[in-house]
Amino acid sequence: METVFSRQKHHAVSNYLSSLNLHPRTHTQISIICVWRYSISFLNLDFSGKAIRPNEEPRKELHLLYTISILAYKAEYSDMAALNANGTLSCPQPMKATSNGVFQGDSPLDFALPLAILQICLVVLLTRILAFLIRPLRQPRVIAEIVGGILLGPSALGRNKHYLNKVFPAKSLTVLDTLANLGLLFFLFLIGLELDLKSLRRTGKKALSIAAAGISLPFLLGIGTSFALHGTINKGVDKAPFLVFMGVALSITAFPVLARILAELKLLTTDVGRMAMSAAAVNDVAAWILLALAIALSGTGHSAFVSLWVFLSGSGFVLCCIFIIPPIFKWMANRCPEGEPVDEIYVCATLTAVLAAGFVTDSIGIHALFGAFVVGVLIPKEGAFAGALVEKVEDIVSGLFLPLYFVSSGLKTNIATIQGLQSWGLLVLVITTACFGKIVGTIGVSILCRMPFQEAVAMGFLMNTKGLVELIVLNIGKDRKVLNDETFSIMVLMAIFTTFITTPLVVAVYKPAKRARRDDYKNRKIERNDTNTQLRILTCFHSARNIPTMINLIEASRGTGKKEGLCVYAMHLMELTERSSAILMVHKVRKNGLPFWNKFQQSGNNQVVVAFEAFRKLSRVSIRPTTAISPMHGMHEDICESAEQKRAAAIILPFHKHQRLDGTFETTRTEFHSVNMRVLENAQCSVGILVDRGFGGGTHVPASNVSYSVTVLFFGGCDDREALAYGARMAEHPGISLSVIRFTASPEIVGEIARVDINDDYNVSTESTDKEFIAEFEKRISNDSSVKCEERIVNNAAETVEAAKEFSRCNLFLVGRVPQGPVVASLNVKVECPELGPVGHLLISPDFTTLASVLVMQQHPSPVSSIGGPTRVTEMPAVDSET
């Protein structure tokens, strides 16, 4: 009896299946079906169960191959095809959105909405845990998200089929992919907002040369590597699109990831950082153009002109956008002035334009992401409009939907497909080629551009950064059947490896030159012999809440009103986060010294500008706004380095707690407490901690209306002398009345302390210095009726507190952080906030009723070696008062 499946014909069908480039699971399913078909062929039955004649065998073979193709298509693309008992195809019903609840017998995992919620929660939880674990390694969060996606996929947890079928069943992947790609659409829009075309036009020849080398050499090496892959593990696909996809994948530099690595390493405003950012921006744009070409070449149309039409249509779309989008959005931006909230209709119109552009490019055959990216690039970056768009979109996209894309990629990544020495050898080849092309090409051109060798090597490692854009290229290639499972897994592992090694290699090879100690940095404290020299103060603030008190403190510190008497650097402390807007802020700060700031309902930036402008006009003080944008664990370095660079005599920091309406203190952010403590430990000048209780009220008080009462509580020691020196400076202001209370212990207390020998620190030399300083101060203010100096002899702690309470109606207390002397030893105050010291803690305790603000001073004892390293603080031109 002749059968359909002779040995030769069965071999032909197997080759046919191999040419379909199917998933291994799909190939197995089809093979089982072929065996079933082979068994019924012995009965001379056709597919409907009817007997056939021998001369109908060719028709049956054709029908069989056609059926196998249909089954392959169904299983590969929907993975939902199933065979009934009679061999016909059937697809399960799509998932309903919501369930009736477990009490009515419904399982939430069988319905789209609760299953999607579970998937999102699982993804966010795992990626955040991984990001926390790799934070000490200073790795970008994209590493945690890619690895988290792989762990949730078939490479790790997905090996448990029960878990995979319940949590990530095949029928739910359509919803998951849709949410992931929608989030990715808006994230590409945000990436476009980060790229400033004007800055690209200003890119120098050096950055363009480095970018060209960083693209061309890896692209050519990627094409060469693709021949090895195409001939071994990626057979059966068109060679041209595969070569281009491989070249693009190996030549990409992830611009957003690189920006965060530079910021984490505090290189963003160094020469290397600026060069790397410029070259990466050019590389990013070129990579998108090459990817558009690759997508056009990977079209499945039968005509040779289809790819040409796709490319020309995409080019026409970009040209239309260039002429249409900028004028429209510039008109919208002009109708959204600084400091006012952006009209909701403009935000909705922009987001709709992003979706429409994505629809157009998807219809053309490029990809929906290109349309969103083009809209983001062409939106004007000036003004508050771009920042408002970032604030509206970024949190939910970056924090919630974008991790879904990494999981979607992880579900497609099966490391188990990399089997055998050949496959692992190809993985090593791809990694070596990717690193060699980027690093060697960039180093070579950088040296030709006369960059120092150390900086050139750092540039090579930085330009080797991969990330989200790499995954986008790989996913598009897999969706277009250009990359199979094994090649896809190899490329994903390559992206993880190259990004992971960037930070440690840059740290190892690039040691920024430490800033030499300034020889002219002599006045590191307010207490000085020559009181006529200019006083430089670095005041820091966290938010708009701190600004009125800080400005009123500056006004009180300006002394006699001499133009060169006081110079103030007002530094806004901003945390560098994973959010794109943080990188936008860095670029804006580099331009004008003020942050790109939209945190306070679009009015915070306006409040800062108005406050400083009013102060400039109403006083004779030179004020220079600066900004420090860094992670919390390194913010103190920016503060200390900036103070040394500006030769500041004192740093004024806000206390990390603010007063509530009931008088108690509430912690703003605990991280700022650590920042303050590190500044106190590392600052090369005096430091003051300001506890704000509304000094001068909620607004700036003009100089002619200033009427403040300042009290200095003097116990002894260098910190108390610094507080008194600052008070003496304030006393020069005509609207300031100063009261100095010097606490002296009664002979009984002195004798008791001497017997138990509690306070060795307060030695004879310190006491003598205090007496000389007090005597000199009393001599200077002998003819000044606005200054009162009195001595209080106390017998115990209760008398000390009562004496201080007599001045509770003042506006500001000035105290030392570590007072010395026998009176302090008798206080025995439990200090919960060590940055305030015992007296400062007493003044803010609930038992001490006062509305006065408190400034706690710590004096820098003597000049020591300066803190090195590059500064990340940028400065705008001085805003001097008018002569």
TrEMBL record:
Any idea where the Cation/H+ exchanger transmembrane domain is? 124-505
Keywords from the named record: Antiport, Ion transport, Membrane, Potassium, Potassium transport, Transmembrane, Transmembrane helix, Transport
User: Has UniProt tagged this entry with the keyword Nucleotide-binding?
Assistant: no
Gene3D superfamilies from the xrefs?
1.20.1530.20, 3.40.50.12370
The residue ranges of the Cation/H(+) antiporter C-terminal domain are 707-860
Q: How does it sit in the membrane?
A: Multi-pass membrane protein
Task: Please give the biological process terms from Gene Ontology that the record holds.
Answer: potassium ion transport; proton transmembrane transport; regulation of pH
Q: What is this protein called?
A: Uncharacterized protein
Q: Which organism is it from?
A: Salix brachista
